[in-house]
Amino acid sequence: MSVDLRTHYLGMELANPLVPSASTLSSRTDTLRRLEGAGAAAIVLYSLFEEQIEHEEMQVHGLLEMSAESNPEARSYFPELEDYNTGADAYLRHLEATKAELQIPVIGSLNGISVGGWTKYAKRIQDAGADALELNIYFVAADPDLTSADVEQRYLDLLAAVRESVSIPLAVKVGPYFSSMANMARRLVQAGADGLVLFNRFLQPDLDLDTLKVDPTLHLSTPEELRLPLRWIAILRGRVDASLAATTGIHRAKDALKMLLVGADVTMMASALYRNGPEHLKATLDGVREWLEEHEYESVEQMKGSVSQIACEDPVAFERSNYMHALVNYISPYDWRMVPGSPQA
């Protein structure tokens, strides 16, 4: 009997739990077709960025104002900004084309931190045919006058505003940097999130010693980075009434399996696809299927969450106890316990 790989995410039944996350890989139709052919159960399109929209709208405003001042009749001739072809229009056209091309669900992505026009663009993404929307919130709280309560409220206000503007399922992709992640997760769900994507990978700046300028070079993730989302998905499984998506550090079948076991509904990857190409998705899916068959699971749903915190034999292992155990038991070649003649050698 073949294993049933189906899972449910944001109210949608997906053929399997592997979903390419938002990245430039989704900007080309031929790559999207390859991802679908390799087994992608859904696609998260690349993000529409707040800064991109603001920059392009400012350019259009400048053009309209300059032209209007040079010709008195121009004030009634030029269209309103929302009728103009800005960067969002190209994104929406690509979304519509992707929906027409693929047979799998297509999830739009907005990347921003302020309410502003995001309600408008969320509605336009919905109208363009997106099956769901991922709100990718990327905010570095650098203002020392901004309290943690202020930061959390900004997230909740943005989410609530977008929730009011769309009826399609809404996932929220956030970073892990909250004083109480579990409480914040619950509040995000209460504010209208149908799903949580854990975690947004906040890219860290580097410094070029030759130019003395900040280096924005992208460094792809590694499998070691999956431990942070693994812990929190394990903790949140069964404690929040929302879908859970695991992202960051998922490169191989074993990574996806770990996330599913602790409670993820889907696992998302981008870095592994950048490194290995769209067909790497098929190899990962084959590995997931083979492991399930080998361990006599009938379905993904059967194993999903079976090692979450509320289901496992040692719940505190996801909290503090493993911290002490790892530090106390790690041995370095330079550790005094390895010195010949010492009591521990």
Concise structural overview:
This protein has 345 residues and is an alpha/beta fold. The chain has helices spanning 29-37, 50-70, 74-77, 87-101, 118-127, 148-165, 181-190, 227-236, 253-262, 271-276, 280-294, 300-303, 321-329; strands spanning 7-9, 12-14, 18-20, 43-44, 48-49, 106-112, 132-137, 170-174, 195-198, 206-208, 213-215, 243-247, 266-269.
Low-confidence stretches: 58-86
Report the C-alpha radius of gyration, rounded.
23 Å
The run of helices and strands is EEEHEEHHHEHEHEHEEEHEHEHHHH
Distance between the termini: 52 Å
Structural class: alpha/beta
Domains (count) = 2
How helical, in percent, are the residues?
A: 40-55%
Tell me which CATH architecture of the largest domain applies here.
Answer: Alpha-Beta Barrel
CATH superfamily (homologous) name of the largest domain: Aldolase class I
Give a count of the beta strands, DSSP E runs of length 2 or more: 13
Which CATH class of the largest domain?
Alpha Beta
Instruction: Note the overall shape.
Output: globular
Task: Give the percentage of residues in beta strands.
Answer: 5-15%
Treating each run of at least 4 consecutive H or I residues as one helix, how many helices? 13
Largest sheet: 9 strands, parallel
Q: What value does the average pLDDT take?
A: 85
Find the CATH topology of the largest domain: TIM Barrel
